[in-house]
Design brief:
- By secondary structure, the protein is an all-alpha fold.
- The protein has one domain.
- Helix content is about 65%, strand content about 0%.
- It contains 15 helices and no strands.
- α1 packs antiparallel against α2, α2 packs across α12 and α11 runs parallel beside α13.
- The termini are far apart.
Length: about 240
């Protein structure tokens, strides 16, 4: 179990509030507040067939997601093409998330090999979670996908980031329904299929609608409604 470091998390949270684009602070907060979430998640991961297979033969999801030429060859409407539609306009790369994560990874030496596989799988599939949930890469979308992630992982870091982010957006926009949207995202994450052991590589050719149905991911109705009503920067794509 990683020891929680609330003061370190508070410092990182202040930096993140000042600059929401400072993604490195997200990883600092996550690791400072994770506690036993990674250990529990790894145990659950090791208790399902696909998780066992991924622990026995870890896959490099990043190399799959960075091969955009191959992804672009999949059919329109597939998970692969939908993923490109999410990350392309925002200028997001799978390698970029790895780089930022590793800049703050000093405590990862405390993880076991299995815990490392589980944690990396979570990190590397982040933008696939954006894709299947329908939450965009705008600031509001990030807050909601983090709330969804708390429902999936029970990592306290996700809860803190989602709450503070939602409160800030509500203050900036004067729209309290932002908090309801984040709450919906949390509940949908709690009620969806458990995503960490999903073998995304085997779903890339599937229609996105089928993948969402398979994973029991509900449509983000409150998020979409608010995004359609506002032009505030926090509702726009990064």
């Amino acid at each position: 179990m990683l020891k929680r470091r609330p003061l370190e998390a508070l410092r990182a949270l202040r930096e993140l509030v000042r600059n929401p684009e400072d993604t490195a602070q997200v990883f600092v907060i996550m690791r400072a507040l994770s506690g036993d979430a990674i250990a529990k998640g790894t145990a659950r991961f090791a208790g399902c067939q696909t998780g066992v297979e991924l622990l026995r033969n870890p896959r490099d999801l990043v190399s799959v997601l960075t091969d955009r030429t191959r992804l672009a060859k999949f059919a329109e409407g597939s998970l692969a093409r939908a993923y490109l539609d999410v990350v392309g306009p925002a200028g997001i790369t799978a390698e970029g998330l790895v780089t930022v994560s590793e800049e703050t990874a000093r405590e990862y030496v405390q993880l076991t090999a299995d815990q490392g596989v589980y944690a990396k799988r979570l990190r590397d599939s982040h933008d696939l979670w954006h894709t299947v949930t329908g939450y965009g890469t705008d600031t509001f979308g990030e807050v909601c996908v983090v709330a969804f992630s708390y429902g999936q992982t029970r990592n306290l870091g996700f809860a803190v980031i989602a709450l503070i982010g939602a409160l800030k957006i509500a203050r900036v926009t004067g729209e309290a329904k932002v908090l309801r949207a984040a709450w919906q995202a949390y509940r949908d994450g709690r009620d969806a299929a458990w995503l960490p052991p999903i073998v995304w590589e085997d779903l890339l050719d599937r229609p996105l609608t089928d993948v969402r149905q398979l994973l029991r991911v509900a449509p983000p109705t409150r998020y979409r409604s608010l995004r359609a009503r506002f032009s505030t920067p926090v509702f726009q794509s990064a």
